[in-house]
């Protein structure tokens, strides 16, 4: 059995590309070639380096499957790493979306442990273009992170949920305050 390390879960509002944490998570698509939403913001501000590394990953392993994660450096961003994970597209709960969404958080935290980072920030994966209902997604995200931090984590001591829109922020606030 491993010793559990103390950790905090922080909730904030804003743009993930401005955060000073060791690793930020990107809600990527399976092509890893960039897209809209948070993915577009990360590639725009992070510069060409991130895309070059994504292209190298594509050449080596092909597309990134839903629920899986890979990492690159963070280019011009203030963080050290970008962990790219592919959230599920909402299909009314018919295609294992909750398990796949939970896997995005768990697999990103596994990579964070491999990279030995102390702090990591997550956007609200799948709740934009992929249309996962926000309240349900927040619950899956929060439970997956807590579960990992309680049972598997060895190095991360801070997890930030960063919400870009008010609706997501309210969902997380209710959850986190309700659980304190
Ligand atoms: P997905 O395809 O996984 O739904 P999106 O990027 O469309 O990915 O949306 C995921 C979440 O990221 C949404 O809640 C959206 O509001 C949020 N988002 C968009 N831009 C940013 C940003 N710069 N920083 C943090 N979150 C963002």
How many β-strands, per DSSP? 6
Tell me the name of the CATH homologous superfamily: Leucine Aminopeptidase, subunit E, domain 1
Q: How many structural domains are formed by the residues?
A: 1
Q: Cα-atom Rg, whole angstroms?
A: 15 Å
> In which range does the helix fraction lie?
40-55%
Distance between the termini: 26 Å
| Discrete helix count | 5
Which fold name is given in CATH as the topology? Answer: Leucine Aminopeptidase, subunit E, domain 1
Query: H/E series, N to C?
Result: EEHHEEHEHEH
Name given to the CATH architecture: 3-Layer(aba) Sandwich
| Strand-pairing-aware structural class | alpha/beta
Q: How would you characterize the largest beta sheet?
A: 6 strands, mixed
Strand arrangement in the largest pleated sheet: 1-6-5-2-4-3
Q: What does the oligomeric state look like here?
A: single chain
Named once each, the bound ligands are:
adenosine-5'-diphosphate
Description:
By secondary structure, the protein is an alpha/beta fold. It has a single domain, classed as Leucine Aminopeptidase, subunit E, domain 1. Helix content is 41%, strand content 18%. The chain contains 5 helices and 6 strands. It has a 6-stranded mixed sheet, sandwiched between helices. Helix 3 crosses helix 4. It is globular and about 45 Å long. The two termini are 26 Å apart. Bound molecules: adenosine-5'-diphosphate.
């Amino acid at each position: 059995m491993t010793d559990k390390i103390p950790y905090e879960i922080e909730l904030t509002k804003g743009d993930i590309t401005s955060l000073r944490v060791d690793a930020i998570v990107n809600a990527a698509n399976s092509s890893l070639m960039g897209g809209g939403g948070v993915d577009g913001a990360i590639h725009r501000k992070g510069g060409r380096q991130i895309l070059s590394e994504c292209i190298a990953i594509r050449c080596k392993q092909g597309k990134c499957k839903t629920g899986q994660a890979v990492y690159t450096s963070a280019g011009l961003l203030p963080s050290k790493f970008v962990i790219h994970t592919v959230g599920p597209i909402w299909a009314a709960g018919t295609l294992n979306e909750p398990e796949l969404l939970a896997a995005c958080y768990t697999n990103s935290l596994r990579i964070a442990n491999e990279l030995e980072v102390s702090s990591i920030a997550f956007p609200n994966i799948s709740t934009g273009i992929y249309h996962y209902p926000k309240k349900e997604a927040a619950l899956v995200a929060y439970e997956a992170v807590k579960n990992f931090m309680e049972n598997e984590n060895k190095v991360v001591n801070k997890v930030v949920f960063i919400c870009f829109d008010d609706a997501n922020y309210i969902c997380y606030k209710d959850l986190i305050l309700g659980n304190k």
